[in-house]
Amino acid sequence: MMDRLLNNNVALRIIALVLACILWLAVHAEQGGSQQTSTGVTESFELPVRVETSADEVLMSQVPTVTARVTTSLLRLPTLANEMMKVEIVADAQDLGPGTYTLHVAAVNMPAGVRSYALAPATITVTLEPKVTVERPVRLSVVGAPSQGYVLGKPQLGAGVVEISGAQSSVQSVAEVAGVVDASGLSQTQTKLVDLLPLDGAGKAVPGVTVTPSAIAVTLPVTSASQTVALVPAVTGTPAAGYAIASVRLEPARAVEQGLPAGQLPPGGLRVPVDVTGLAKSTTVSIPVPLLPGMTGVSPAAVTAVIDVEPSALATLSNIPVTITGATGVRLIGPRTVTVTVTGAQSAVQAVEKDVGAVQAYVDASGLSRGTASLPILVHLPEGLSAVSVSARTATVQAMP
């Protein structure tokens, strides 16, 4: 009979299950994890509590765990621990409004094989505050420096303002939303994703506050620290009486600067002041190249200014036509021509006498939509010349209906 029993698979499985239950009970009995009674076996589980709140309320208090004492049959005991992982302990705080409340807790998804259970404590105390959402600017801090020979431009933020939401008291304590981006070793423009933190006035992170978006893209523009820039003479002062400046040129006409990226350089070039006060003859002088704010150096540090000085001359140019710019549908009533007296270096005056068309007289009719108007006559002259007089100061124009 024993041989038949040992050869019976079903009987062996039943015996193995009984022995496993006995062994399990022996181990847990030593550890105090379960208790067998006439109604079954009781096991204890520590479970967190999920407090359900309204969308416009925020839970401010710490929620304790709850001990669930669960009674089940001896046969269901081996699988109870896995089944209890699906159990949730909930407390309903919806539609209560701000304040402190004592709430009953309840178990959800309790296993079907559980005969009975008890929760301790059966109630919890919670505090609710109104949920608010406000906007805050982003303060970005850059740490580290680009590789040698490169400079960092102004970082470009994907979002300069973000939303923060949470309990009213927590949001009110947020002084700023800050992020830190590392520019160490960069040798080219790069975009990085930067996490944002809500900080209080002491620079500490404020808990329980949500930042939306939680991270922003920051572009770090990196350019070579050395840029080639054009040098432009900026003439100051007045030469001696009876003389005029025919031309000023710089040698060399370009320099290499360090410190400013190309995008921050003057579009017309770097202006180099050249003082011509009292000059009565052509001369050559050495002039230092000025540094703009942000520049750390320039090469060469000084350039040669070649100043051509000539006797001044005067010429009167007649019958210069007056034209209209800045608008269409506007007609000139008069005067139609003007006489312009110019002065300057002798060679420049002689050149304009041969090419009177280089002198332009015009009125700017921008913004004139109807009626008649008297507009100032403007004169455009070749470089090195200036107007001494114009025979008429204004011209009358009429906007066509």
UniProtKB/TrEMBL annotation:
Pfam families noted in UniProt: YbbR
UniProt-listed Gene3D superfamilies: 2.170.120.30, YbbR-like domain
Highest taxon listed in the record's lineage: Bacteria
Name of the protein this chain belongs to: CdaR family protein
Organism expressing this protein natively: Alicyclobacillus sendaiensis PA2
